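User: Working on a comparison across species. This one is Transmembrane protein from Peteryoungia aggregata LMG 23059. Can you predict its structure so I can line it up against the others?
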Amino acid sequence: MTLTMATAPGAEKSFGRYGWQLAVLGIALTLAFMMPALINRFPLVMEDSIGYSGQGVGWIRSKVPPILIYPLYRVMGYWALPLFNAIVNAAAWLVLIYGFRIRKAWLVLPFAVAALQPIYTSAVLVDAWFFPAIVFLVFSVKWSSPFLGLAAGLLLAGHGSGLPLAITFILIAAFLFGLKSIRMTLLAIVMMVSANAFVNSKYFPDTPPMSKTFLAARLFSVHPELLRRECERSGNEVLCEAAVLVEDLKQDPETAGRRDYFWDLARILRERFDLRDFERNHAKAIILDGLTYRPFLTALVVVQDFFSFFGPGTKLDFNAVLSEPMPPAYDGSLQAKGLWQDDQTRTLLTGLRFVFYVACIVAVAVGWRSSTIDMRKWFFVIVLMCLANDALFALLSGPPDRYHHRILPLYAAAACILWLSARSASVPAEQKS
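Assistant: Here's the predicted structure for Transmembrane protein from Peteryoungia aggregata LMG 23059:
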């Protein structure tokens, strides 16, 4: 009995040799995904990082990541999440390579680098979880694998965008593959909802999740008048003060294009701007008011923000000065010296991103004609998920760019499926007696 893997039309390799090749590639990917942190001399961090690091559990962000990473955090500190990110993302690439019988598999490495994937795997953030989550969802359907469905659900539980995007995946997969494709995605959703419900019942059970605040903040960042109208309706004078602050920020050339003024209010007004009270008593009213208040201008801003994700001027959120306390080792990092906000760094990453877009287009053009119907269907699933991600964040938060950057590796995966997948009709791996 021999286990074989078809890697190209008419070609077979022993699984043992192929397995070693995958192992070497997995190590190379893991090292590449840690490289920016190693060069930086500390993991890349931003204001949110303390809530994901494993150091403790906060009430604003998902509580699943810090709990999941806590055992590793006790050993490695802030390096724990980047190592986890690197290993899981490398594993996802190996699953994709094996499942689609990717030829010249080493080519995924430059694709991943050009997609800026190492930047986000090296960060104390969970944006890097979206790539493996979607890859695992794809193969939970292809292989009818409950394990991959559960793993995808756990990863999607790390961010509030997980549920709407998992529902989007169900709709796309059901349309292209039929209702039989939804079972494992439903399992992922059950896992996601259950994990969040469990940790929410254990930590800050009396604090409402910020399910409405972000959309309300998105609306009043476009229309500060909504804060003033809610101030007049509710009698909460702090909201009137907040409206003046947002108007001032919109007039400042350095902050005029931003969509995240909510965090400025929380930082400047501090305890006077009560986030829990805003979520419970004001966010819904602002959303309902915002739906009918100058809707065409709101829609125009959303469309502009969607297309801005693909434009020049790459902006990273890894600022040198952070309001959250960081470990002493951070002070010796290149980030603390301003590397990731440097114009040369941003220009380099912008150039790399545009090279990546061109490479993806060329790969799709070259591979399309000889690709199978199944390849094309999965290509469309992944690309539509990428577009859904950008549409969701253009609607809910607009820039920062990292919400678009997190799906660039999925574009790379989609391009590799069409360009590098073996065209043999044989299954990925078959057991012959």
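For your comparison, note: The chain has two domains: 2-207+324-432, 224-293.

User: Helpful, thanks.
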